[in-house]
Automatic annotation (TrEMBL), chains A, B, C, D:
One of its GO terms (molecular function) is aldehyde-lyase activity. The lineage of its organism: Bacteria, Bacillati, Bacillota, Bacilli, Bacillales. It comes from the Bacteria. The keyword NAD does not apply. SMART domains: Aldolase_II. It comes from Halalkalibacter alkaliphilus. Coiled coil: none annotated. Belongs to the aldolase class II family. AraD/FucA subfamily. This is L-ribulose-5-phosphate 4-epimerase. Its cofactor is Zn(2+). Pathway: Carbohydrate degradation; L-arabinose degradation via L-ribulose; D-xylulose 5-phosphate from L-arabinose (bacterial route): step 3/3. Keywords: Arabinose catabolism, Carbohydrate metabolism, Isomerase, Metal-binding, Zinc.
Length: 231, 231, 231, 231
């Protein structure tokens, strides 16, 4: 079942090493079929070159594996919580891509320092609070999902398609697994730009709201005028 | 019409991902046919691998589309204003190449710190002032062109084939779209060199005018003696 | 003899340039056959593309060459000392990979700043003390091995599969030569992340022990739950 | 004439883009035939992919072109002066490779901060003084050669196979054009390591002389014991 979605999840996972977001098995992409509420995700610890679409594990939104013999990614429960909390998303990706990981390790949100950022992320890219010792020791992966959702209490996941988990690394999402991955690629590029911009000048400030609005809204939302009309 | 120019514009656009100046659709190259005053430019939001020469949009210098069904780049009006203001140029390119974008986000001109810079750019590479809220909210792309032209009031675009748009990124130009792209590649390299040079020493100063003159003028202008004689 | 092991050592050596850990001949991988106590290692100063499995030198644990006409790596005695001191390891690798070399040249251990580090290295990655003038002038390569072993007096080499040699560069090991190389690749990535994390913030601290335990122990040791069950 | 040498010079020039030392035409390699005193060098401003061995210009040590219709590199006179001053060298290379250029632009010699440096360069890599206005305006390329030679008054070019020209970039040499290029590749790597090492710690000092001696002399000179015996 879900043959098409499995193919898309496979392709999206293969984008990760191709786009230099991961080495070895350091990342995973999933997608959800909203009709059935079933999630397809990368198996744990399997090399990208060995992945086969038909072998990808399938789980329901309670985390029960309903298909596939391979164990799903150890981050599966985090993905599932995001699908539960953010009904508008269809794909989730987690990597340890270097520039985002650097910001996560430094415990810093990524400020919006230019129009490249504003084209895709509507404001500062948030970072979660640190997990408590208790949250680390019991249900760590579930609590990772919970702390992301807590961070987004007052945020729109469509306007901010990514987050940094403190001391850890980035999670991204999108309407499809493909869009989730392109958001991860772009957040990595923006994290790099922000690092060097901050390093070049002490006086750097986030861009003005009018410029943020202009760039985000000309590419996203109802009045966008970027790209070809596809409707 | 303009078959040859369309091919050149296509090739110049394909140089952008090949030279690592862009990811996804983050850049655009145009060219002008000075006899007819017609401009060929990349369509908006189309992936480089899907571009076809015969489908490239053609516009006149008033911005009216005279050929092609695809919508032109959202930056088209900026390109057109540059062709109007700088009669000596034949190609324009805009990217978010990382090192130039870092300087643009930091709001800093790129000082001339060595002979590599002096070989191609005759002095500090300028940065525009920030646009006002009013200029951002109304006719943003037109005002982007205007602020570049304002920055060049006292400058020769043949001696300074590029600019940083504040908070945004680089624009470059040249006699041909190919030369515009090679100037973009070189400005990116120079932006990188300048970043690390400034980081290595607090005391760095622009090179002396005699060295700037020597290097720029041995490669450019009437008394140049670099390269093969091709006349 | 040791045909299979020689093939594995050849493949592991070829991973070094492929993974951008070395240029020219700047690295070497060895493996030990614990049954016979024989060590297979890269010959000295031979280009990776010219290596042939059947020509790899074989030595016993006293350092006597028992097979092969090519001279073994000048670092051979260091490798042999590690095999003597750490009976649980089966492969050793030495490179001058840039990020690890930077930390080694700075004379600094690599602090554990995030979960990527904790997934593979159980705490700060140690750096040896500097060798004395006497230790440099007499039996330099032997003393390099000795100072690594001294550094690990109170450490478990299975929980810390690598070290920085002061002013020099990294050594890594693993159960197999392949695992030694993947540990070298990962230590290089972690060294890069740590460099940029420290540069981004003055206030950076090692991660909490609970997070270190969680990540290291979910991937390593008896209660790990990462990857597929292969027993 | 000099067919073999021309082939070697061609190959050495092609190494420059392959090893990421140059973009476009930003570098040149030459070689000398010591029997005839003739120098083969890259033509000026010709793309690497268009170079043909038989078309490479040949000059004598007075700078007279004795073969070939293409104009030689504008840096030819600098190369020739080095061949005159350093009788032990057979190849010279000049590039604007980024890390060396950064040190040159910062006006700083590259300190010997680790064994990687010591393996190839016997001490700090020197930087020339700046040229005077007079030296820039008259016979610039000749004076570039002179200032390198002045810098080496008390140095052995075999023990220090490279130099930084102030505000400009690196020159390297070797017994052959191939060795000159590998020295350029290695100096670029060392310049990168030194940059990041200095950035990581304020307290960094050059390595001790005993370690410098050990590493340089085990790879170079009469008592070296690195690599295979080829005599």
């Amino acid at each position: 079942m879900l043959q098409d979605l499995k193919k898309k999840v496979l392709e999206a996972n293969l984008e990760l090493p191709k786009r230099d977001l991961v080495i070895y098995t350091w990342g995973n992409v999933s997608a959800i079929d909203r009709d059935t509420g079933l999630v397809v995700i990368k198996p744990s610890g399997v090399a990208y070159e060995d992945l086969k679409a038909e072998e990808l594990p399938v789980l329901d939104l309670e985390g029960n594996q309903v298909e596939g013999r391979l164990k799903p990614s150890s981050d599966t429960i985090t993905h599932i919580l995001l699908y539960q909390a953010f009904p508008e998303i269809g794909g989730v990706v987690h990597t340890h891509s270097p520039w985002c990981t650097v910001w996560a390790q430094a415990g810093k949100a990524i400020p919006s320092l230019g129009t490249t950022h504003a084209d895709y992320f509507y404001g500062e890219i948030p970072i979660t609070r640190k997990l408590t010792k208790e949250e680390i020791n019991h249900n760590y992966e579930k609590n990772t999902g919970e702390v992301i959702i807590e961070t987004f209490e007052d945020k729109n996941p469509s306007y901010m398609p990514g987050v940094l988990v403190n001391n850890h690394g980035p999670f991204n999402w999108g309407k499809t697994p493909q869009e989730a991955v392109s958001n991860a690629v772009i957040m990595e590029e923006i994290a790099k730009l922000a690092y060097y911009t901050q390093s070049l000048t002490d006086a750097v400030k986030p861009i003005d709201n009018s410029l943020l609005d202009k760039h985000f809204l000309r590419k996203n939302g109802n009045d966008s005028y970027y790209g070809q009309v596809t409707k």
